[in-house]
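Record pair follows.
FIRST:
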Amino acid sequence: MREKLLGKSPEELKTIALEAGLPAFAGKQMAQWLYRKRVSDISEMTNLSRQGREVLSGKYEVGLALPLDVQTSADGTRKYLFPVDGDAANAVETVMIPDQDRKTLCVSSQAGCKMSCRFCMTGRQGFHGQLTAAGILSQFFGIEEAGELSNAVFMGMGEPLDNWEEVKRVIEVLTADWGLSWSPKRVTLSTIGVLPELRRFLDECKCHLAVSLHNPFPEERLQLMPVQKAWPLEEVIGLLRKYDFSGQRRVSFEYTVFDGWNNTKRHADGLLRLLKGLECRVNLIRFHRIPDFPFGPAPLEQMEAFRDRLSRGGITATIRASRGEDIFAACGLLAGKHNSL
């Protein structure tokens, strides 16, 4: 199998160019072809010599994967299905969410997930492999709206910090001046709280952070989130308190609201105590029913009462609008399934 160029930096491309008998500056030219002009084949890099392109093509490919399927929701949300390393049976989903003048891409970083959260369809299917930087970038470059994207959230299939090296490469492409030149403020990474990779993210990256919390009480959180045993929430919060979120970088907490499990006054007050003094916001998410799960979604009025109690306690809280539920593109529903499978 040929090595993929997509995801490599200009310095790495420079080394590849020299090995192919091309001049050093060809590395920058290749980066422009990959990230600005977004070619799908080395033969399209026409300012490289024909001989150099032939040598490159013997060992490398661009590595751009195209979607196998696309579904469009009644609300305009679109869900794309991408093969993993050419394997249609092992596929991942990415979701494009339009909102007025914004188009946000919800990106997958793994095929399946190791974290096994009981309320998540991705977690239920187990782990099937890491995505390469090329596989993640294909989700940006391979969709119809590729040139219109305004934001990205690493909230699709998988745990981004469990694949940090490849995710970091992608974020570099998105934010570097030789890449897409996005501001880090346009990118949010969501994590369940994987230590020590969370510390690496905070030290090495300026993008926004979202932490999957869902219950402020450790023993209750452990019931649905096995990760609580490996990386306790209190340790995650303790680490976050060492960083400054009063400037451009923000931290938010994702809180899926289940009827009768985590939506009481006791839970709201527990959340206020847990997050006291931390510059943050809480995003309340409506639960989307999945088979063989004991809890259902909380009524809207209960979510509003929960939000208002947090707000009165000094924490900014919002209820996130559910998008794409009719095509199973909403939070917790991604499973990498092809319509025909």
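SECOND:
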Amino acid sequence: METLRNVETELLGAFCGYAKSNDGRPLEVEGNETLLRSRVATLETRITAIEERLNRPPQ
């Protein structure tokens, strides 16, 4: 019975370590998404400015 408890304790410890290592992944993904959204917004602003300049009649 004690051997079974030891195996259970080892398994729970292994799963706990796995869960802790995966906790940081969602935060990293969210940070990357925020950065990507910011970069896309900058590109959209630049493209809009270029389109506005191209669509102006010549002076």
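COMMENT: The first helix runs from residue 2 to 55.
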